[in-house]
Each structure stands twice: as C-alpha cells, then as structure tokens.
Amino acid sequence: MVVKLDKVNVVVVGTGWAGGVVSAELAKAGYKVVALERGKNVVREDYIGVKDELRYTNRYEMMQNLAPETITSRNYMDENALPVRTRHEMMAGTDLGGGSVHWAGATYRWKAYDFEIRSKTIERYGKDKIPKDMTIQDWGITYDEMDKYYDKWEKTAGISGEIDPIGDKRSSDYPTPPMKQSPTVKLFIETTKKMGYHPYQVPSGNLSQTYTNPDGETINQCMFCSFCTQYGCDFGAKSDPLVTVIPTAMKTGNFVARTGSYVKRVLYSGDKATGVLYVDNMTGEEYEQPADVVVLAAFTFTNNRLLLLSGIGKPYNPKTLTGVIGRNFNAQFNITFLGARGYFKDKKFNSYMGAGALGGTLSDFAGDNFDHSKLNFINGGGIELRQYGNGAISTNHVPKGTPNWGPEFKKNSLYYTNRTLVAWYTMATMSYWHNFVDLDPTYTDRYDDPLLRITYKYTDQDKEMAKFGIEKSSEIMKEMGADIVDDDTVPEEFDHIYDGGHYAGGVIMGADPTTSAVNNYLQMWDMENLFVVGGSAFPQFAGHHPTATIGALGYRAAEGIEKYLKDGGLLVEQKRESSKV
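-> structure tokens emitted (581 positions)
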C-alpha cells in the first residue's frame, strides 16, 4: 500500500548542484521543499581523514551501486545493448550532494558561441558547414542572459579564478583569486605564452583562500592534499553542495532532505504533475509525495529514465526523427580527453602535491575562437595541464615501448616518477540523430522497470577534432622541454566506458517544442509544473567542463519556479518551426 504524505510546495529529485541550488533558493523564498536522494545521508565530517586510494580511486566507493540498477549500451541501432556492470565502466555519483561532492573542481563558463551554435556557425560558414546527420541547436537563451546566473553560482561556490584573456565579457570577476601557481603550471603558462597563445589558470572550486559566500556559508582554503577527484573534501575546501546550498536550505526551516529515497515515477493528472512515487530503500515501503511543483534535478540518466517510465513527453524516434525525450544524447567520453604525455630526463616535478583544479589552460582552440573554414569539424576545446596530485597506486607512467613487466619496466617506472606531465584537449561533442537514449526492451531493474539504453557511436567529426587536439597538445609538450612525447591514439569506436561523469542531453532546452523538451527556464513544454534541471538540458556539449553551467541553470530554473508558483502558466512563448529534427 502506498502511503500518501502531506503536500508540499516543491519536491526535488536529486541533491547535487542542480537540486541543491533549486532547493536553497525556494526554501529561502519561504516555500516548503522536500528533496529526495537515492543515496545515504552524509556530512562533511564523514570525509575527514579519509585518504584511501584503494577505497575511492580503485573501488569507487562514492559511486552508484550498479547491481540494482544500471544502464545498457550499444553503438548501433541494430545491435542488442548489454548492461554496464562495473563502477569502472560507469561512474555516477550518489549520496547527499550527488556527484558534485566528488568532482575535481575545474570551473568554466561556456561561450556565447555554445549557446547559439547553430545560428553562429551558419552565419560565419554557411549552412553546409553543419553535417546533415548533426542535430545541434541553439539553447533558447544567450550567454548575455546566462551571465547573471553564472555570476551568482560562482559567488555561492567561491570560485578561485583568473579570467580568460580571450573569453566573453562578464559582469564581475571571480570572488576569490586564482590558486597558488605551482612550478608545473608556471611552466605551462610561460611556454604557451611564448607560443603566442593566451593561457590562464584553471578557475577552481578548490579555493585559494577561506571565503564566506552571500548565504553566509564558509568554504575553507585548499591544502593541496591531492584527494579531490572521486573524494569528498575533508578540509571543507572544495565547493560542493555539502558546504554551500544544502546547509543554506536546511537553515531556513523550510527544507527536508530524505535520503535512501528511490524515485520510481512522476505522478500526474492530465497535463499537471501531482507529485512523485518513491520507495524507502531500507524498508521497501512506497510513498507518494504530492507537490505543487515537481523538479527532476538528478543525473542525466535518471532524468531521462523517469520521464520515459512515467510516460511524460513524446519519446524520440530515430527512424522518424520525431519526438524529444531521449534526443541529442551527448557527453564527454574518453575520446574527448586525449592529448600527449611528455617525459623529462632532466626535470623533476613535485607531482604528488596537487588539487583537482590546479592547472593551466587556454581557449585559443575552443568554441569558434579559431577559423574552421579548412577544418573538417566545428567547435573545439580547451587545452589543459593539471596537477591533480599523483596517487601511489594509480600513477605509474612509462614511455611507449616499455615492457609492462620486468627489469626495464621497473627501471623506467622508478626513473620517470615525478618526470612526466600530460596536456590534453577537452573537446566538445556535437549531437547526432543516431545518438540517443530510450528504454531497454530486455533488461530491467530490481523493480522490474526497464533500464535506460544508450545508443552512441563516434563520428568523423569527433575523430578529426580529437586528432587536432592531440597535435596541439603534442606541440605544447615538446615546447615545454619533454625529451619523449607520447601522443594518444584516437579510438575507432566508443568502448562503452562511462567513467567521466559528464553525460548530457535527452531532455534538452530550446525555443521549439518539436525539437526540445524544456524551455529556457527548464520548464517542460508538455507539463508546466514540471521542471527538469541539470546536464540533461544540454542540446550539445561544449569544449569545457559542465559544472558551472549546471549550477547557473539551477539558478535560472529556481527563478522560473518562483515565477510559476506566483503566476502559473508557461514562462516562455513557444516557437514552432518544424515537426522533425
């Protein structure tokens, strides 16, 4: 029997940056908010003194358990998809704060070009520059409109940054200065400046100094302990929901976070959502949480699957190119982080000291900052060199050609410890009609609900851009003085490894309801009191990391939800241009 709970103003599914921002803003405005999180309750103190590489880097303790629920994956529509079984193959965050707790901290605004990519590409190069099978589209919002939301999120997160010398205009600087520049980062920046580029330090969610944000939450100064990526910060020095928006929401008295709550369906009557159905992971008891507004702010996979399971929105059909839910699946996969590794015979670096976003970068080859007229791709990516802080177990790089065991391996392994650096190209991924998500017809979860199925293959555009990025990264590594430079190899096909965490699309933004699921307030076209927030809204993926854009969209959505609660109705005028992709 389903237990029906008291109605609240807003129910939020997910407690990462997207759900945390929405929850905090609405609770501050006086609305009663319940957030549902499938994982367990955690606080910052749970991570104090926990620097266990085996436990977190190798065994992925902070990631979702794939036994009761996973995804299935295939490259082509005529193949049977198979389940992704290990956390190495698919890392999705869980527990209070979501994947935002174990992120590295690299923080970028996406470019004006990214938000209007189709229009701006056609304007500069003509319509023929866009391949026929590419389904990129404008977001229905511009960078200038997004600026204030980026700014608000950066101030909430306390981002420590240096402004991109060739970046788009912004209303204010980062709230804290860039991190202390290590010799490695200094070498990258000095070298690339001499090459005529415009390097700057990676804007960082690992803070350069102690900072109190506008909500009164204090984030501590980074200790360069190296345990950022795949770890919770035991110093409280990494911008995440556990030290920012979740405490802010709780202090209002209007917010409740229910952990161990697995949401199974969005409930609705006619064209209005009425709440959600969820099950308590400990007891197995089912609950209905009624609400005036439902917000799906979970991981991209979960947002898509809940809509498909609930029968909300028209599923995308790749054969007819109609429908919207599941369309334009895009992500940063292994091919998007390729570059070149350099080995230095006469230079040593303190590679075991670091932080997730300690690094240098440049955007000379990102977006449309460079001429694509003679290139076989559009968009681009940032080139990065980061000093994460090497791990004793996972870091053991040797030059290509070295045997993987024996005396020569041991000799090179010991010699090149602290003598190797890597630069890579964080490239954009465009959307295509053949890359999408739907429900798997064969495999189900523990509740006998279909798993989410991913259909994804690399394209010539992906491979050409990756080759370009490898060449540029290799040139930089040689100029930095590496004696041996090993270039990465471009894979022929996607290998079903979902270990980067940057997955997007399927519930995408736009101005046309026939090619988008949500408007620029993240409000469903088909159900006005249902908002779907997070990376699932990206129509395509830009050439930098997504967290700042997810946080900014959270503030945009929160503003829209407040407007809706006061006035009701669709918040954006619909434009209908075509019934097909």
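The chain is about 20% helix and 20% strand.
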